[in-house]
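Example record used in the benchmark description.
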Amino acid sequence: MAGRTERSTDDAWFGTGEEIGRTRGLLFKWFCLGATMLALGLMLVFLLYVANDAFQPLTADPVWLGLFGLVVIVPAFVFAAYVYRNESQAGRVAYTALGLPLVATLVAGGIWIVFAHIVTPHEWFALLLSLLAAAAVVEGHTRVRPDVVFERLGVVVLAPLLALVGIPAISIDVLVRTPLLGQELFRIDLSTPELLPSVRAAILSLPALPAPNLILLGTVAIPIAAAIGWHIRRVRESERDGAVAFGATASLAGVGLVTAPAVGITPTTWILFAAIVGGACGLYTEHVLRRREGTIGLAFPIVVAVGFALLWALAGTLGVAGPDSWLNWSFLTSPHSTTATEAGIYPALVGSILILVVIVISAFPIGVGAAVYLEEYAPTQGRASKIVELIEVNIANLAGVPSVVYGVLGLAVFIRVIGMENGTALVGGLTIGLLILPIVIISAQEAIRSVPDSRRNAAYGMGATKWQTVRGVVLPEAIPGILTGTILALGRAIGETAPLLMIGVPAVVRTSPNSFTSRTGAMSRQIYTWSTQIGVDFRYGVLAAGVITLLVVLLTMNATAIVLRNRYQRTQNR
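Model output (C-alpha cells):
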C-alpha cells in the first residue's frame, strides 16, 4: 500500500513514462528549432552588417529612401504576400522568375569573360573543327572496324590529340577583310612565318574564316536556339512550335549585329547574353504557361523592374541622390588601385573563373569516373574488396583534411616536382581540384547508389551489357545528384584562400590573366589582401563590396544545386 502510494506520488510529480517521453520530445524539438533560428539569425546579422558597409544605405537622401520603399519594396512585398496566400505554386514561380535572369546573367558573364580574355572566337572555332574532325575519325573507325574494341580505344585517345595540333595553325592575322556593317566579315589566320611557301599557299586557297561575331553567332547562339527548338518540339509535340522557338531565339541573338552598337555594347556581348539569358527565360516562361500553374508569378520580376524604373525616373525628376555604394559597376569592372574609391575586383574575378574552369575540367571527370568504378565495377568479394574498402576509407578521410595541407601538396607536386610556374590559374585550379576531388567522389557515389537496383536488373533482363547499363540507365538517373554535389563542392572551392597562399597566388593583380599559365589573382585572395590594408575605406568599404560579390557567386551556385536537387526529387516522385 505504501509502495503504491509512493508510486502514485512520483507519477503525480514527474508524470507517466509516456508523458515524460512526450515532454522530452517537445523539449528536443524546441531546442533544435531554437538552435536553427539562432544560426540563421547570426548569419542574417552578419549579412546585414556586411551589406551595410558595402551599400551604405544611410548615405542616400531620405527622400530617395522613401521612394525606394514606396515604389520598390512595398509593391514587391504586397505582390509576394498575395501570391503566397492565394496560390502557393505562384510563389515558387515568382522567386524562380526573379532569380533565373540573375543566374543566367552570371553564367553569360562568365562565358563572356572566357571569350574576352582566354579564348578568341577564332581559336574557339578551330577547337570545334578539330574536335569534329576527331569525332569523324572515331565514327569512321567504328563503322569500318566495329569489333576491334582496344584499337578503337587508342583511336579515341589519339584522334583528339592529333586534331588539336591544327589549333596553333590559327594564330597570326594575315589578310582578307571585307567590311559589313562596320564589322569584319572575313579573316584568315595562319601559323608562324616559317611555314613553307607551298603550305602557306595551300592554306590561303582555303575558304576564309568568318568574323568573330559570326563565329559566336554560329557556334554559340545557333546551337542554343536549336536545343531550345528541339525541346519545345518534343514537349509540345509540334514541329511548328519548335521552329518558332528556334527562329525567335536565333533572331534575338542575330539582331545584335545591327542593334548592339546603337545601344553602346559590342555585338559579342549582345549575342552571348541574348542567347543565354533570353533562352533561359523563354524556356521557363514556356514551361509555366504550358503547365498553367502559378502563371501570375511571372509578373513578379516585372513588378520589381517597373519599381526600379519608377525610382530612377522620380529620383532624377526630384534631384535626390541614392546611396554612395562601394559595390557598383565601376568596382566590378576595375582593377585594384591604391585609392579605395578607384579599387575594383575585375582581374581577381577573371582569375577565379579561370581557376573554376581548371577545377571542373580536372576534378569532375576523375571524380565521377572513380565513383562509377567504386560503385559499379569494384569487386565486392575476396582480397581485392579489402583494397577497395581501404580506398573508400581513405577518400572519406581526405575529405576532412585541412585545405592548407592541399596547398602544401600543390606546392610540392606541381611547382617543385613538375616545375610549373607558381601563382598561375592552372596550378591554382589543379591544387583546389585535389581539395574537392574527395567531395566529388563521395557525392557522386551517393547519387549512383540511390539509383534503384530494379532499373539495373531491368536493363540486364533486356540483354544490356554492364557498360550499356551504366551509360544508359545509371548515369542519366544519377546526373542530377552528381551535379548537385559537384556544384556545392565548387562553391567551397571558390572561397578557399589557404591553398592559393601556399602556391604563391599574388596578393594584387592589376591586369586580367590572358591564359591559364598567366599569373592570376582570385577573389578570396584579393579580399584577404584588402583585410590587411591600413586604410579604413579598404578594410570596411572595399572589403565588404568584395565579400558581397563573392557571396553572390556562392549563393547563386548553391541555389542552382538546390533547384537541381528539388527537380530531381520531383521527377523521382512521379
